[in-house]
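This week, study the protein below.
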Amino acid sequence: MIRFKRKLIIAALVLLFNGFIYQTHSQGSNLSSSNQKSSFEKKVKQKTPVSKNQNIEKPKSNKSTKEKSKDSDPKLNIFREALNLDLENNLKEALKKYKLATKQDSCSSIAWNNIGLIQQKLGKEEKAEQSYKKAIEVKPTDTQAINNLASLKLLQGKTIEAKNLYEKAIEIDPDYPYSYSNLGNLYKRYGRFFRAVEYYKKAIDKAPVAEFYYRLGLLYFDMKRYEDMLETFQKGLNDNSEFSEIYYSLCIVYFHNFLNQSNEIRLQELKKAFTKLKKTDTKLAQGFYTKFLTSAK
C-alpha cells in the first residue's frame, strides 16, 4: 500500500513537472536528457573535489573600454588573445599565446599561472608545478598561483606542503576567501570535519556566496547534520547567484521531504527550487527530472 502511494505521488509529480520541461522546450532551449549529477548526489560514493574549480586569472585594469582601445598595447593584446582561446577551451593555442605573454612584465605572473592551469588540465603535473612556481617567483604575493600550487600538492598526496602553502596565502592576503575554502577542503578530505567547518565559515565571512555555503552544506551532510545542511543551502541562495548545484541539491532534499510528508508546503518548496534550477541550468534540471522523477516511477 505504501509502495503504491509512493508511485502515485511520483506519477503526479511527473505530470506536474512535465509542464515545466515542456515550457522550456517551447521557448527554444536546447534541452536533452542528462546524467549530470551534483557533488551532493555523488557524495556517498566519492570524496568532494580537493579544491575549488580553478579560475583562469585575468589582469586587473581600471581603464574603460574606450581608453583601452585608444592606447591598446600590442603585448597586452597577446595576453587577451590567449585568454579568449583559453575561455573557448582551445588549450594548445592558448598555451602558445600565454608563453608569448610571459615576456610582458605586466602580465607575466598571471600568464604563468594560467599556463600551469592548462598544463594541469592536460595531465602534465610536473610542468604545471614549475609554471605555478614561476608565477610565484615573478610575483611572490600571487595568492591564486599559491592556491593552485597547494591544490596540486594535495592531489599528489603532499598534505603538509599543501597546508603550509594555503596558510602562506592567508598570511599574504587574509581577505582572499578561496584560501580558507581550500584549507577547509583539505581538512574535510582527511576527516577533520570540525576544522573544515571552521575554515568554510571563515570563507563565508570573507565572501558570503553560494559556492561556500554549498561546500559547508555538503560537509554537514557528511556529518549527518541534515537540518544544518538544509539551513546552509537556503542561506546560500541569498546572494542571488546562479550557482546551479545548490538548487539541484535543494531539489533532491525537497523531493525526499515531499515523499515522506506529502502536503502543499512540501510541494511548493520543491516547485520553487526546481523553477530556479531550470532558470540557471536547464540541462541539470532535465537531469533531475529524468533521474528522480521519470526513472523512479
About this structure: Residues 1-31+242-297 form one domain. Residues 21-53, 62-71 have pLDDT under 50 and may be disordered. The two ends are 15 Å apart (CA to CA). The first helix runs from residue 2 to 26.
